[in-house]
Every structure is written in structure tokens, then in C-alpha cells.
Amino acid sequence: MKCVSCKEEYTSEDAGTCRDCYDEAGETEEELKREIDDLKAKLNFLTTTTSSSSYSTASSPWLCFSDVVLVASTYEDASTPIPAHRAVLASRSPVFKAMLENDMEESLSRTIKIIDVSYDALRAFICYLYTAEACLDEPMACDLLVLADKYQVKHLKTYCEKFLITKLNWENALLNYAFAHQHNAKSLLDASLVVIMENMDKLNKREEYKQLVDKDPQVVVEIYEAYVSKQANTAALKDSPNL
Amino acid sequence: MKCVSCKEEYTSEDAGTCRDCYDEAGETEEELKREIDDLKAKLNFLTTTTSSSSYSTASSPWLCFSDVVLVASTYEDASTPIPAHRAVLASRSPVFKAMLENDMEESLSRTIKIIDVSYDALRAFICYLYTAEACLDEPMACDLLVLADKYQVKHLKTYCEKFLITKLNWENALLNYAFAHQHNAKSLLDASLVVIMENMDKLNKREEYKQLVDKDPQVVVEIYEAYVSKQANTAALKDSPNL
């Protein structure tokens, strides 16, 4: 027989679908693609502005009718204010919402100062709140995860975690584990732990390990606890009479 | 052979894919579904508010930090004002943008009066600008199409046209044709014309036809022109030596 998709000959042992099911699958795929197009058009409608520039182009902020500014500030210095809208900030982050709805300093001055963050990271953060998109590398993903955790922007936190998980390896697993621990990033924590546990024999030779033992021994203890618990589970499975 | 999808036996004549292609198609489908989930989560992030009520629940408007109101008004009466945000209106509609960015009455008073529209239709229109969703029946689709045309909200106009096209039949084709003509709805116009041209022998017996001849004969002439042009094309195709 000839496959209607790849046009190669195949024997009955390698048979896939009958023609009816093949046609049906094709229709399903078409429907899914149409749904994707519709969803993309909706997203585009909700995020594109009618002016020539938009929040996603770094140079010229769109932001007409802005009613609040955000400032990235260190103790010495403050960045260029980034204009935004209270309604958008409040609808994306419960922390901004509480801050802006009550008579807090930020609400009265219409200025939100954010400490210990770079201008670029803050700008990317605000941009994400408007567009649900960000251009990530590892440092930016870490910066945005910290902000997402602090301002409870769950969608962004998941996005950053997913990105960092794709970059996990033995070289960075311990740092990612400690980082995930600090910022309550459960998926990244679990994924880092898997990588660490595959390399337990090499663990205490790493420089970051020694630093972590000094700085945050509790976190190291949790790694060992997870390891011992996993070993116990494995042993129990082996001894189980059902296997 | 047995189909791996429906589990039915089939002969080699009815063969669809080989197993490799079947597996690949399954993976593609999974990928498309994942993409759909991602897009839906993005949309949800961009349209859901953190407060308990949202724009899509009719009773309690969310709309904190609103900086403009819209009023549905007839010559005698004005409805309850509907709060909104200038930034959202301006980013979805070039007409609102121009109105709000310049020193027009609406911009100074922060009030946009919309004539000859019901409160419900206006509310659904504003809701669409925030969520890209609307619950349509035929009268609502017509009302929203009129607003979408007036305020140049292309995404909504397409949405209403698609809905009205699914409801087209010989009973409503002529009314839809005239309506589409009046509000520059090209897809609806073309689709209505197809239905009308299938029923040309019955056309001049309809009550709406007579009314249209009185009210807007130009539109009726265009139907006849399209019909004659189609007949000429069909005849030319028949005479073509290549067929």
C-alpha cells in the first residue's frame, strides 16, 4: 500500500489509519488551525494600538492618557519614569491593585518606585502586562520572575519558569534551585531538583554548593531530604511483590 | 489491516497513512492543542481582572480608574453613563482616538454621547473593546456592526459579519443585502448576493423588494447588474473551447 501522506509504500504491519480516519484527522487539523488564527486575531486586537508605535517597540512608548508612572530606582539613582495606566496595572496584579486603590503613597503621588531592578527589566515587565509577551534570555527571565513573584503576576511567573526549565543543566541546576527556592517557583524547583539528584555524587564538589551551605544550609538540607526520600521510594518499589 | 484510530478492518484500497505518518499527525495535533491552550491563557491574562466582577458580567462594572464615560442617547433621553478608559477606547478605535486626543467636546467633557443606540448595544460594544467577545443574536449583531463601522473597529465588524452570514437565508437575504450596503460590509454583501442570485425568479414578489425599489433603487440596480454579469461569465465559460 501507499501512504496518502508521505507517498511511501508500506506493508500491512506498518499500517496506520484507514482513509476515513485520515480524512477526519485532516479536518480536525484544519479546525485547530482556524481556532489558532481566531485566537491570534483576538490577541492582536487586544494588544495592538492604533498609533504607529506600540509598547512592544522599545523606542517610542505609545501610552496616551497615562495616569501613573513607574520608576526603577536603586538607593543612589532613579531611572526615566515609565508611563502606564492604573487600570491595566490593577487588573494584572493584585499587589498593584491594592497599592493603587488605597490611599498609599503610590496612589497619591501616581508614582510607583521599584527598588533593585534595572530600567530594562522594569520596562519588559510593564510591557508584559500589556501584551503577555516578553523577549527572554536567562538574566531577563530571572529578573522578570522576581518581579512576577513580588507583584503576583502568575502568568508571567509561569512563562519565566518554563523558559528557565528549558535551559536547565548540571552547570546551573544548583543556582536555579536556590533561586527557585527564594522566589517560590515550584516548577523550576522541582525540575532543578531532578537534575541535581541525577548528579548527587558530584554535588559537594561544586563551588556553588559550598557557598550555599554557608549562606543557606536549610536549602541544602532539603536537597538531601528529597534524595533520601527518593531512595526509600525506589527501594520500596523494588521490594514490592507486585513487580 | 486494522485502522489504529477507529480499530475497524479495511482493505488496501481504503488505506490512509502508514504508522509513521499517523504518529506524526498525532504529535502535530498535540502541538496545535498546546498552542491553543497557550493562546487562551494569554487572552485570559489580558482580559481577566483581579477583582471579583469583570466587564463580562453585566451587573457590576469593574472599571476602577475610569477616565471617560459613554452615554447612549436618543433625542429625548440619555441612558446611564457607562464608564471606560480613554486609553482602551483610543487603542481599539481610530475614531475614538481622534476624538479623545484632540480638543473636541468629548475630550473636554470626558463624555462621549452616542446617538440612536440602545444602552444594551452600547454596553456590549464597550465590553467587546475590552474582551474581544460578544454574545450575539441577529439584532445585536446588526447593532454592533453599525457601531463597528462607525468607530472603525474592524475586528468586531468581521465578527458580526461572520455571524450574520451563518444566519443568511432567502427570507432575510434582501434585508441583509441592503443593510450590508449601507454599512460597507463587503463579506455580508457578497454572501447575501449569492443567496439572492439563486432566487432571482422570486425576487420581485417580495415585499422588501418593493420597498427597496422605492427607497433605494440604486441598490436594486446593483443586484441586476451583478446578475447579468454572472450570466455573461457563465455563458463565456460554456463557450470556452478548453472546457
From TrEMBL, chains A, B:
PANTHER family named in the record: SPECKLE-TYPE POZ PROTEIN
Pathway per the UniProt entry: Protein modification; protein ubiquitination
Molecular function terms from GO: ligase activity
Coiled-coil segments: 22-49
Matches recorded under SMART domains: BTB (SM00225)
Domain BTB, residue spans: 66-138
Database matches in CDD domains: BACK (cd14733), BTB_POZ_ZBTB_KLHL-like (cd18186)
Organism: Lithospermum erythrorhizon
Swiss-Prot/TrEMBL keywords: Coiled coil, Ligase
Keyword Chaperone applies: no
Name recorded for this polypeptide: Ubiquitin-protein ligase
